[in-house]
Amino acid sequence: MRNDRSEIAPFYRANARRIEREVRLSMPFFRRVTARAYGKTTADEVIRETLLGFRDLLPDLPFIGGWQNPLTTNLYQSAALLSYYRALQARGKQVAEIGRLIYQAVQAQYTSFPFNLLLWFSGRTRRSLSAQARTAERALISQKQAYSGDWVFSFLHRREGAYDWGVDYTECGICKLLHTYQAQELTPYLCALDYPMVKAMGLTLNRTTTLAEGGPCCDFRLIDTGAKTANFVPPIVRG
Length: 239
What we know:
Helix content is 53%, strand content 10%. It has a four-stranded antiparallel beta sheet with strand order 1-2-4-3. The longest helix has 23 residues.
């Protein structure tokens, strides 16, 4: 049985200061790409509106388990990107243009210190059998569909010569969130952010379909390539 978010303790209100502080850490990267595209004055205005908009969005985000669910971070970070999108959309900018700026900002963040070090360490952790066992356990929990705004996925163990481990997402919290706010056109651009993230972890991501593109699932296949990860740029964000 799924829980209605109105029945859940106000997790986001209780953790607003911590979450907003985390989002603010990414804003210099967004300010930089925005200023390069539209000038410093517009960039300052957009970042201010992004933070204010995110503050308004935060209390109404669906509860999916709080800190016990690692995907909670993905959910509120996507809400911050939605707020940035809205700020530029209000200025007449198109989704493709905004999506490329988001990709550039996030890529710059993931390759800068200390984010690059944190992601590299996260990648090393995820290689371990114990970490993969936890992911497999979380996959089984997700299939109980306790929270309507959550992801639902299954875990795939190593397939020799193909991938080291994999995940099939059949429901996506980001797709649901953006659909709620009638911004589903942004979803494929947020899907593209998985590639620079995985690269920073020292892994390679192979994916043939996504829910955002109308596929039956998001088929993540992860390969442990260490420092030799290819610099793949998704076609949707190529200039």
